[in-house]
Specification:
By secondary structure, the chain is of the alpha/beta class. It is 44% helix and 10% strand. The strands form two sheets. Strands 3, 4, 5, 6, 7, 8, 9 and 10 form an eight-stranded mixed sheet that branches. A two-stranded antiparallel ribbon has the order 1-2. Strand 4, helix 9 and strand 5 form a beta-alpha-beta unit.
Protein backbone atom coordinates (compact mmCIF):
# COMPACT_ATOMS: atom_id res chain seq x y z
CA UNK A 1 0.00 0.00 0.00
CA UNK A 2 2.82 2.40 0.94
CA UNK A 3 4.64 1.55 -2.30
CA UNK A 4 1.44 2.18 -4.26
CA UNK A 5 1.06 5.62 -2.65
CA UNK A 6 4.68 6.47 -3.42
CA UNK A 7 4.13 5.49 -7.06
CA UNK A 8 1.00 7.63 -7.19
CA UNK A 9 2.90 10.57 -5.70
CA UNK A 10 5.71 10.13 -8.24
CA UNK A 11 3.17 10.00 -11.06
CA UNK A 12 1.54 13.20 -9.78
CA UNK A 13 4.94 14.88 -9.59
CA UNK A 14 5.70 13.82 -13.17
CA UNK A 15 2.39 15.28 -14.35
CA UNK A 16 3.18 18.59 -12.65
CA UNK A 17 6.68 18.70 -14.15
CA UNK A 18 5.27 17.83 -17.56
CA UNK A 19 2.56 20.52 -17.33
CA UNK A 20 5.07 23.10 -16.10
CA UNK A 21 7.42 22.21 -18.94
CA UNK A 22 4.61 22.67 -21.47
CA UNK A 23 3.79 26.10 -20.05
CA UNK A 24 7.42 27.16 -20.09
CA UNK A 25 8.10 25.88 -23.60
CA UNK A 26 5.03 27.71 -24.93
CA UNK A 27 5.94 30.92 -23.11
CA UNK A 28 9.59 30.78 -24.16
CA UNK A 29 8.41 30.26 -27.72
CA UNK A 30 6.01 33.17 -27.39
CA UNK A 31 8.67 35.54 -26.12
CA UNK A 32 11.18 34.33 -28.68
CA UNK A 33 8.70 35.02 -31.46
CA UNK A 34 7.71 38.32 -29.95
CA UNK A 35 11.15 39.79 -29.54
CA UNK A 36 13.19 38.12 -32.29
CA UNK A 37 10.85 37.65 -35.23
CA UNK A 38 11.47 39.73 -38.33
CA UNK A 39 7.74 40.41 -38.45
CA UNK A 40 7.64 41.79 -34.93
CA UNK A 41 9.04 44.87 -33.24
CA UNK A 42 12.63 44.15 -32.32
CA UNK A 43 13.45 44.23 -28.64
CA UNK A 44 16.84 42.69 -29.24
CA UNK A 45 18.70 42.38 -25.99
CA UNK A 46 18.11 41.96 -22.28
CA UNK A 47 20.28 44.28 -20.23
CA UNK A 48 21.77 43.19 -16.94
CA UNK A 49 19.09 45.14 -15.06
CA UNK A 50 16.33 43.23 -16.84
CA UNK A 51 15.22 46.00 -19.21
CA UNK A 52 15.10 45.69 -22.97
CA UNK A 53 17.28 47.53 -25.46
CA UNK A 54 15.01 48.42 -28.34
CA UNK A 55 16.11 48.84 -31.91
CA UNK A 56 15.89 52.28 -33.47
CA UNK A 57 12.54 53.75 -34.50
CA UNK A 58 13.38 53.42 -38.17
CA UNK A 59 13.79 49.66 -37.88
CA UNK A 60 10.35 49.16 -36.38
CA UNK A 61 7.41 48.08 -38.53
CA UNK A 62 4.20 49.93 -37.74
CA UNK A 63 1.87 48.27 -35.29
CA UNK A 64 -1.09 46.93 -37.19
CA UNK A 65 -4.62 46.47 -35.95
CA UNK A 66 -7.44 44.16 -36.81
CA UNK A 67 -10.76 45.38 -38.10
CA UNK A 68 -12.61 43.12 -35.68
CA UNK A 69 -12.53 43.70 -31.92
CA UNK A 70 -11.34 41.02 -29.53
CA UNK A 71 -14.64 41.11 -27.68
CA UNK A 72 -18.01 40.32 -29.18
CA UNK A 73 -20.70 42.82 -28.29
CA UNK A 74 -24.29 41.70 -27.93
CA UNK A 75 -26.05 44.97 -27.22
CA UNK A 76 -28.88 45.45 -29.71
CA UNK A 77 -27.97 47.84 -32.47
CA UNK A 78 -24.20 47.50 -32.06
CA UNK A 79 -22.79 45.98 -35.20
CA UNK A 80 -19.53 44.05 -35.02
CA UNK A 81 -17.43 42.63 -37.82
CA UNK A 82 -16.52 39.15 -36.62
CA UNK A 83 -15.61 37.55 -39.95
CA UNK A 84 -11.87 37.73 -39.33
CA UNK A 85 -12.10 37.04 -35.62
CA UNK A 86 -11.21 33.60 -34.35
CA UNK A 87 -13.03 33.51 -31.04
CA UNK A 88 -11.35 31.31 -28.42
CA UNK A 89 -13.39 29.01 -26.29
CA UNK A 90 -14.68 30.64 -23.08
CA UNK A 91 -12.14 29.13 -20.67
CA UNK A 92 -9.13 30.11 -22.79
CA UNK A 93 -10.54 33.60 -23.23
CA UNK A 94 -10.83 33.95 -19.46
CA UNK A 95 -7.33 32.59 -18.76
CA UNK A 96 -5.87 35.21 -21.14
CA UNK A 97 -2.69 33.36 -22.02
CA UNK A 98 0.00 35.75 -23.36
CA UNK A 99 0.18 35.49 -27.13
CA UNK A 100 2.89 36.59 -29.53
CA UNK A 101 0.18 37.93 -31.84
CA UNK A 102 -1.23 40.33 -29.24
CA UNK A 103 0.93 43.20 -30.45
CA UNK A 104 -0.72 43.08 -33.86
CA UNK A 105 -4.21 43.35 -32.36
CA UNK A 106 -3.59 46.09 -29.81
CA UNK A 107 -4.86 49.55 -30.76
CA UNK A 108 -3.34 51.55 -27.93
CA UNK A 109 -1.37 54.61 -28.98
CA UNK A 110 -3.09 54.99 -32.37
CA UNK A 111 -4.24 58.60 -32.60
CA UNK A 112 -5.45 60.61 -35.57
CA UNK A 113 -3.00 62.42 -37.79
CA UNK A 114 -1.55 65.44 -36.02
CA UNK A 115 -2.91 64.45 -32.60
CA UNK A 116 -0.54 64.42 -29.62
CA UNK A 117 -0.86 61.91 -26.78
CA UNK A 118 -0.96 63.81 -23.50
CA UNK A 119 -1.80 61.18 -20.87
CA UNK A 120 -2.75 57.54 -20.31
CA UNK A 121 -4.59 56.03 -17.35
CA UNK A 122 -4.52 52.24 -17.14
CA UNK A 123 -6.81 50.11 -14.99
CA UNK A 124 -5.73 46.47 -14.67
CA UNK A 125 -7.06 43.35 -13.08
CA UNK A 126 -4.43 41.27 -11.28
CA UNK A 127 -2.90 38.40 -13.20
CA UNK A 128 -3.42 34.66 -12.81
CA UNK A 129 -3.84 33.57 -9.21
CA UNK A 130 -4.39 30.48 -7.11
CA UNK A 131 -8.05 29.67 -6.40
CA UNK A 132 -9.65 31.48 -3.47
CA UNK A 133 -10.85 28.11 -2.20
CA UNK A 134 -8.36 25.23 -2.17
CA UNK A 135 -10.82 22.45 -1.28
CA UNK A 136 -10.60 20.79 -4.71
CA UNK A 137 -6.78 20.97 -4.67
CA UNK A 138 -6.78 19.36 -1.24
CA UNK A 139 -9.35 16.70 -2.14
CA UNK A 140 -7.47 15.58 -5.25
CA UNK A 141 -4.01 16.18 -3.73
CA UNK A 142 -3.08 18.60 -6.51
CA UNK A 143 0.34 20.12 -6.02
CA UNK A 144 0.35 23.93 -6.02
CA UNK A 145 3.92 24.98 -6.61
CA UNK A 146 3.31 27.54 -9.36
CA UNK A 147 3.64 30.62 -7.10
CA UNK A 148 7.38 30.27 -6.43
CA UNK A 149 9.32 32.63 -8.67
CA UNK A 150 12.53 31.60 -6.87
CA UNK A 151 12.46 28.12 -8.36
CA UNK A 152 15.60 27.34 -10.35
CA UNK A 153 13.28 26.07 -13.07
CA UNK A 154 12.39 29.65 -14.04
CA UNK A 155 16.04 30.70 -14.03
CA UNK A 156 16.86 28.10 -16.65
CA UNK A 157 13.80 28.22 -18.89
CA UNK A 158 12.21 31.68 -18.77
CA UNK A 159 14.82 34.42 -19.00
CA UNK A 160 12.36 37.30 -18.85
CA UNK A 161 10.94 36.08 -15.54
CA UNK A 162 14.34 35.35 -14.03
CA UNK A 163 15.75 38.76 -15.01
CA UNK A 164 12.68 40.46 -13.57
CA UNK A 165 13.00 38.42 -10.39
CA UNK A 166 16.71 39.13 -9.95
CA UNK A 167 16.29 42.87 -10.53
CA UNK A 168 13.39 43.21 -8.08
CA UNK A 169 15.22 41.09 -5.48
CA UNK A 170 18.17 43.50 -5.56
CA UNK A 171 15.81 46.43 -5.06
CA UNK A 172 13.98 44.59 -2.29
CA UNK A 173 17.19 43.82 -0.39
CA UNK A 174 18.18 47.49 -0.41
CA UNK A 175 14.88 48.62 1.14
CA UNK A 176 12.90 47.90 4.28
CA UNK A 177 9.52 46.95 2.90
CA UNK A 178 6.60 46.02 5.17
CA UNK A 179 5.58 42.37 5.25
CA UNK A 180 2.49 43.07 3.16
CA UNK A 181 4.42 44.72 0.34
CA UNK A 182 6.36 41.69 -0.88
CA UNK A 183 6.83 42.53 -4.57
CA UNK A 184 7.32 38.99 -5.96
CA UNK A 185 5.15 35.85 -5.93
CA UNK A 186 7.33 33.63 -3.79
CA UNK A 187 5.20 31.04 -2.03
CA UNK A 188 6.77 27.58 -2.06
CA UNK A 189 3.18 26.33 -1.89
CA UNK A 190 0.42 28.63 -3.18
CA UNK A 191 -1.85 30.27 -0.67
CA UNK A 192 -5.48 31.06 -1.55
CA UNK A 193 -5.66 33.88 -4.10
CA UNK A 194 -1.88 34.24 -4.41
CA UNK A 195 -0.44 35.61 -7.66
CA UNK A 196 1.27 32.92 -9.73
CA UNK A 197 4.40 33.23 -11.83
CA UNK A 198 2.14 33.10 -14.91
CA UNK A 199 0.17 36.01 -13.40
CA UNK A 200 3.36 38.05 -13.12
CA UNK A 201 4.29 37.11 -16.68
CA UNK A 202 0.91 38.32 -17.96
CA UNK A 203 1.59 41.81 -16.63
CA UNK A 204 5.19 41.81 -17.78
CA UNK A 205 3.65 41.15 -21.19
CA UNK A 206 1.08 43.96 -20.78
CA UNK A 207 3.76 46.38 -19.64
CA UNK A 208 6.08 45.60 -22.53
CA UNK A 209 3.32 46.06 -25.10
CA UNK A 210 2.24 49.40 -23.66
CA UNK A 211 5.86 50.50 -23.40
CA UNK A 212 6.01 50.05 -27.15
CA UNK A 213 2.77 52.01 -27.63
CA UNK A 214 3.32 54.90 -25.23
CA UNK A 215 6.95 55.31 -24.25
CA UNK A 216 8.88 54.19 -27.28
CA UNK A 217 6.41 55.49 -29.87
CA UNK A 218 5.11 58.64 -28.16
CA UNK A 219 7.90 59.39 -25.63
CA UNK A 220 5.15 59.98 -23.07
CA UNK A 221 7.31 59.46 -19.97
CA UNK A 222 10.72 61.04 -19.46
CA UNK A 223 12.91 58.73 -17.32
CA UNK A 224 14.42 61.77 -15.62
CA UNK A 225 11.06 62.88 -14.21
CA UNK A 226 9.10 59.63 -14.05
CA UNK A 227 8.95 59.74 -10.25
CA UNK A 228 6.76 62.85 -10.60
CA UNK A 229 4.84 62.03 -13.79
CA UNK A 230 3.95 58.36 -13.12
CA UNK A 231 1.37 57.66 -10.42
CA UNK A 232 0.45 54.16 -9.20
CA UNK A 233 -2.32 53.02 -6.90
CA UNK A 234 -3.18 49.47 -5.86
CA UNK A 235 -5.79 47.85 -3.69
CA UNK A 236 -4.48 46.62 -0.35
CA UNK A 237 -4.11 43.04 -1.59
CA UNK A 238 -0.77 41.45 -2.28
CA UNK A 239 -1.63 40.03 -5.71
CA UNK A 240 -2.66 43.47 -7.02
CA UNK A 241 0.50 45.06 -5.64
CA UNK A 242 2.65 42.35 -7.23
CA UNK A 243 0.76 42.75 -10.53
CA UNK A 244 1.51 46.49 -10.46
CA UNK A 245 5.22 45.83 -9.89
CA UNK A 246 5.36 43.34 -12.80
CA UNK A 247 3.52 45.78 -15.08
CA UNK A 248 5.86 48.65 -14.17
CA UNK A 249 8.93 46.49 -14.81
CA UNK A 250 7.68 45.82 -18.33
CA UNK A 251 6.34 49.34 -18.91
CA UNK A 252 9.20 51.56 -17.71
CA UNK A 253 12.75 51.13 -19.07
CA UNK A 254 15.23 50.42 -16.26
CA UNK A 255 12.48 50.29 -13.64
CA UNK A 256 13.42 49.85 -9.98
CA UNK A 257 11.15 49.53 -6.95
CA UNK A 258 12.32 52.76 -5.38
CA UNK A 259 11.58 54.76 -8.56
CA UNK A 260 7.79 54.93 -8.28
CA UNK A 261 5.90 54.96 -4.96
CA UNK A 262 2.80 52.74 -4.92
CA UNK A 263 -0.06 53.92 -2.73
CA UNK A 264 -2.88 51.72 -1.46
CA UNK A 265 -6.65 51.81 -1.17
CA UNK A 266 -8.88 49.47 0.82
CA UNK A 267 -11.76 49.26 -1.66
CA UNK A 268 -11.87 47.64 -5.14
CA UNK A 269 -13.42 50.79 -6.64
CA UNK A 270 -10.56 52.98 -5.37
CA UNK A 271 -12.79 54.91 -3.01
CA UNK A 272 -12.71 54.85 0.77
CA UNK A 273 -15.53 54.75 3.31
CA UNK A 274 -16.68 58.30 2.59
CA UNK A 275 -17.93 56.99 -0.77
CA UNK A 276 -20.43 54.62 0.81
CA UNK A 277 -23.88 54.79 -0.78
CA UNK A 278 -26.70 53.12 1.25
CA UNK A 279 -29.16 52.96 -1.67
CA UNK A 280 -26.77 50.57 -3.44
CA UNK A 281 -27.66 47.83 -0.96
CA UNK A 282 -31.34 48.16 -1.86
CA UNK A 283 -30.53 47.88 -5.57
CA UNK A 284 -28.21 44.94 -4.96
CA UNK A 285 -31.06 42.96 -3.41
CA UNK A 286 -33.01 43.24 -6.66
CA UNK A 287 -30.04 42.06 -8.71
CA UNK A 288 -29.31 39.16 -6.37
CA UNK A 289 -32.94 38.10 -6.60
CA UNK A 290 -32.68 37.97 -10.39
CA UNK A 291 -29.41 36.04 -10.14
CA UNK A 292 -30.92 33.50 -7.77
CA UNK A 293 -33.97 33.01 -9.98
CA UNK A 294 -31.64 32.42 -12.94
CA UNK A 295 -29.71 29.87 -10.89
CA UNK A 296 -32.91 28.01 -10.01
CA UNK A 297 -34.09 27.93 -13.64
CA UNK A 298 -30.80 27.05 -15.32
CA UNK A 299 -27.75 26.19 -13.26
CA UNK A 300 -29.32 23.93 -10.65
CA UNK A 301 -30.98 21.83 -13.35
CA UNK A 302 -28.07 21.79 -15.78
CA UNK A 303 -26.95 18.14 -16.15
CA UNK A 304 -23.36 19.09 -17.01
CA UNK A 305 -22.95 21.26 -13.93
CA UNK A 306 -24.61 18.64 -11.74
CA UNK A 307 -22.16 16.05 -13.07
CA UNK A 308 -19.13 18.26 -12.35
CA UNK A 309 -20.47 18.92 -8.86
CA UNK A 310 -20.87 15.19 -8.25
CA UNK A 311 -17.32 14.38 -9.44
CA UNK A 312 -15.62 17.15 -7.50
CA UNK A 313 -17.86 17.49 -4.45
CA UNK A 314 -18.30 21.24 -4.82
CA UNK A 315 -21.48 23.24 -5.40
CA UNK A 316 -23.25 23.66 -8.72
CA UNK A 317 -22.95 27.46 -8.85
CA UNK A 318 -20.85 28.87 -11.69
CA UNK A 319 -18.69 31.04 -9.40
CA UNK A 320 -17.15 28.23 -7.28
CA UNK A 321 -16.82 25.98 -10.35
CA UNK A 322 -14.97 28.69 -12.28
CA UNK A 323 -12.68 29.51 -9.37
CA UNK A 324 -11.82 25.93 -8.49
CA UNK A 325 -11.54 24.38 -11.97
CA UNK A 326 -11.05 27.06 -14.63
CA UNK A 327 -8.76 29.29 -12.59
CA UNK A 328 -7.41 26.34 -10.61
CA UNK A 329 -6.63 23.90 -13.44
CA UNK A 330 -7.16 25.18 -16.99
CA UNK A 331 -5.32 28.47 -16.45
CA UNK A 332 -2.38 26.54 -14.95
CA UNK A 333 -2.49 23.89 -17.71
CA UNK A 334 -2.84 21.18 -15.06
CA UNK A 335 -4.75 17.98 -15.95
CA UNK A 336 -8.33 18.23 -14.71
CA UNK A 337 -9.19 16.11 -11.66
CA UNK A 338 -10.65 12.60 -11.74
CA UNK A 339 -12.49 10.87 -8.90
CA UNK A 340 -11.83 7.40 -7.49
CA UNK A 341 -14.11 5.88 -10.14
CA UNK A 342 -12.03 7.31 -12.97
CA UNK A 343 -14.60 9.97 -13.88
CA UNK A 344 -12.83 13.14 -14.97
CA UNK A 345 -13.91 16.74 -15.45
CA UNK A 346 -13.56 17.76 -19.12
CA UNK A 347 -12.76 21.15 -20.60
CA UNK A 348 -15.86 20.94 -22.80
CA UNK A 349 -17.91 20.74 -19.59
CA UNK A 350 -16.17 23.83 -18.24
CA UNK A 351 -17.07 25.69 -21.42
CA UNK A 352 -20.68 25.01 -20.44
CA UNK A 353 -19.97 26.50 -17.00
CA UNK A 354 -18.47 29.62 -18.59
CA UNK A 355 -21.39 29.99 -20.99
CA UNK A 356 -23.81 29.76 -18.07
CA UNK A 357 -21.86 32.47 -16.23
CA UNK A 358 -21.95 34.66 -19.32
CA UNK A 359 -25.71 34.15 -19.58
CA UNK A 360 -26.10 35.09 -15.91
CA UNK A 361 -24.04 38.23 -16.48
CA UNK A 362 -26.04 39.12 -19.57
CA UNK A 363 -29.45 38.94 -17.88
CA UNK A 364 -28.28 40.94 -14.85
CA UNK A 365 -25.57 43.40 -15.91
CA UNK A 366 -27.51 44.75 -18.87
CA UNK A 367 -30.53 45.51 -16.67
CA UNK A 368 -31.12 48.96 -15.18
CA UNK A 369 -30.71 48.00 -11.47
CA UNK A 370 -27.25 46.58 -12.12
CA UNK A 371 -26.25 49.57 -14.29
CA UNK A 372 -27.50 51.96 -11.60
CA UNK A 373 -25.40 50.17 -8.98
CA UNK A 374 -22.28 50.49 -11.14
CA UNK A 375 -22.91 54.20 -11.80
CA UNK A 376 -23.18 54.93 -8.09
CA UNK A 377 -20.21 52.74 -7.19
CA UNK A 378 -17.87 54.07 -9.85
CA UNK A 379 -18.68 57.80 -10.01
CA UNK A 380 -15.98 58.77 -7.43
CA UNK A 381 -13.43 56.69 -9.36
CA UNK A 382 -14.45 58.35 -12.65
CA UNK A 383 -14.14 61.73 -10.95
CA UNK A 384 -10.61 60.83 -9.95
CA UNK A 385 -9.79 59.85 -13.54
CA UNK A 386 -11.24 63.07 -14.98
CA UNK A 387 -9.37 65.14 -12.36
CA UNK A 388 -6.08 63.66 -13.59
CA UNK A 389 -7.09 64.62 -17.13
CA UNK A 390 -8.07 68.12 -15.99
CA UNK A 391 -4.57 68.75 -14.64
CA UNK A 392 -3.17 68.07 -18.11
CA UNK A 393 -5.84 70.00 -20.02
CA UNK A 394 -5.34 73.06 -17.81
CA UNK A 395 -1.56 72.60 -17.92
CA UNK A 396 -1.14 72.49 -14.17
CA UNK A 397 2.26 71.88 -12.61
CA UNK A 398 1.29 68.61 -10.88
CA UNK A 399 0.09 66.85 -14.03
CA UNK A 400 0.73 63.13 -14.42
CA UNK A 401 1.52 61.51 -17.75
CA UNK A 402 0.85 57.87 -16.83
CA UNK A 403 -1.46 56.60 -14.11
CA UNK A 404 -1.85 52.92 -13.15
CA UNK A 405 -4.64 51.44 -11.03
CA UNK A 406 -4.14 47.80 -10.06
CA UNK A 407 -7.37 46.16 -8.97
CA UNK A 408 -9.74 43.22 -9.38
CA UNK A 409 -12.67 41.98 -11.45
CA UNK A 410 -14.74 43.99 -8.93
CA UNK A 411 -12.90 47.06 -10.22
CA UNK A 412 -13.26 46.46 -13.94
CA UNK A 413 -16.77 44.97 -14.13
CA UNK A 414 -18.64 47.96 -12.63
CA UNK A 415 -16.39 50.41 -14.48
CA UNK A 416 -17.13 48.75 -17.82
CA UNK A 417 -20.82 48.67 -16.99
CA UNK A 418 -20.94 52.30 -15.84
CA UNK A 419 -19.35 53.43 -19.10
CA UNK A 420 -22.20 51.74 -20.94
CA UNK A 421 -20.00 49.22 -22.74
CA UNK A 422 -21.96 46.15 -23.88
CA UNK A 423 -19.28 43.79 -22.57
CA UNK A 424 -20.88 41.54 -19.95
CA UNK A 425 -18.35 38.70 -19.67
CA UNK A 426 -16.36 38.20 -16.50
CA UNK A 427 -13.23 40.39 -16.91
CA UNK A 428 -10.46 38.03 -17.87
CA UNK A 429 -7.30 37.65 -15.80
CA UNK A 430 -4.80 40.49 -16.40
CA UNK A 431 -7.39 42.57 -18.29
CA UNK A 432 -6.61 46.21 -18.99
CA UNK A 433 -8.92 49.20 -19.54
CA UNK A 434 -7.09 52.27 -20.83
CA UNK A 435 -8.13 55.93 -20.95
CA UNK A 436 -6.06 57.97 -23.40
CA UNK A 437 -6.11 61.78 -23.48
CA UNK A 438 -5.22 63.33 -26.85
CA UNK A 439 -4.74 66.90 -28.03
CA UNK A 440 -5.81 67.72 -31.59
CA UNK A 441 -4.15 70.24 -33.91
CA UNK A 442 -6.74 72.87 -32.89
CA UNK A 443 -5.75 72.32 -29.21
CA UNK A 444 -9.06 70.60 -28.37
CA UNK A 445 -8.77 67.50 -26.18
CA UNK A 446 -10.29 64.09 -26.88
CA UNK A 447 -10.60 60.83 -24.96
CA UNK A 448 -10.12 57.31 -26.26
CA UNK A 449 -11.10 54.24 -24.24
CA UNK A 450 -9.63 50.82 -24.99
CA UNK A 451 -10.43 47.45 -23.45
CA UNK A 452 -7.87 44.68 -23.83
CA UNK A 453 -6.33 46.42 -26.82
CA UNK A 454 -9.60 47.28 -28.62
CA UNK A 455 -10.88 50.83 -29.12
CA UNK A 456 -14.37 50.81 -27.57
CA UNK A 457 -14.85 54.57 -27.32
CA UNK A 458 -17.85 54.64 -29.63
CA UNK A 459 -19.55 51.86 -27.67
CA UNK A 460 -19.78 54.03 -24.55
CA UNK A 461 -23.02 55.62 -23.37
CA UNK A 462 -21.66 59.16 -23.74
CA UNK A 463 -19.88 58.96 -27.10
CA UNK A 464 -21.86 56.63 -29.37
CA UNK A 465 -21.36 56.66 -33.11
CA UNK A 466 -19.03 55.13 -35.65
CA UNK A 467 -15.52 56.66 -35.90
CA UNK A 468 -16.68 59.70 -33.94
CA UNK A 469 -14.05 61.47 -31.80
CA UNK A 470 -15.04 61.69 -28.14
CA UNK A 471 -14.35 65.08 -26.60
CA UNK A 472 -12.86 65.47 -23.16
CA UNK A 473 -15.83 67.71 -22.34
CA UNK A 474 -18.28 64.88 -23.13
CA UNK A 475 -16.47 62.52 -20.77
CA UNK A 476 -16.25 65.18 -18.07
CA UNK A 477 -19.96 66.00 -18.36
CA UNK A 478 -20.91 62.30 -18.20
CA UNK A 479 -19.05 61.94 -14.92
CA UNK A 480 -20.55 65.11 -13.47
CA UNK A 481 -24.11 64.29 -14.51
CA UNK A 482 -24.38 60.77 -13.10
CA UNK A 483 -26.74 62.06 -10.41
CA UNK A 484 -29.12 63.28 -13.12
CA UNK A 485 -29.66 59.69 -14.29
CA UNK A 486 -31.56 59.29 -11.03
CA UNK A 487 -33.32 62.68 -11.07
CA UNK A 488 -30.91 64.34 -8.63
CA UNK A 489 -28.26 67.00 -9.02
CA UNK A 490 -25.39 64.84 -7.67
CA UNK A 491 -24.39 61.33 -6.60
CA UNK A 492 -24.35 62.35 -2.96
CA UNK A 493 -27.97 63.48 -3.23
CA UNK A 494 -28.93 60.10 -4.73
CA UNK A 495 -27.14 58.23 -1.96
CA UNK A 496 -28.88 60.25 0.75
CA UNK A 497 -32.33 59.72 -0.75
Amino acid sequence: MIGHRLNMKKASTKWMLFATALISISLVTMWTLQYRSKDHFKAKQLNTDGSYSLASEKEQPKTTTTSAPLVTHTKPGVGVNTKKEVKPNPVEYYCNFPNSNDIFKMQEGNGRKGWKLKQVQIVIRHGDRAPLNLNVYNKFKTERRFCNIHSNFYSDTLKLVSNYRNSIMKDQNSQHLPYFAQPLPEGIVCSPGQLTVIGALQHLHNGLMLREAYIRKHKLVDPATQDKTVYVRSTHVRRTFQSAVAFLYGFLPNYHLQDIPITFTMGPTFCERHCACPIVKTLEKKVKKTQYQTYLKRQRNNPVMKNISRITGIGDHTGPLMDSLVTGYICKQIPLPCNENGECVKQSQLNVVMNEQEYLNRVTRLESPARNISLLQIQPFLENITNHMKQVVEDLAAQRKAVLYSGHDLTLAPLIQALGLPEYRWPRLASRLVFELWQATDSMHFVKILFNGVDVTNDTAFCPGKNKPCSYDSFMQFQRDIGKYFGFDSRSSVCKS
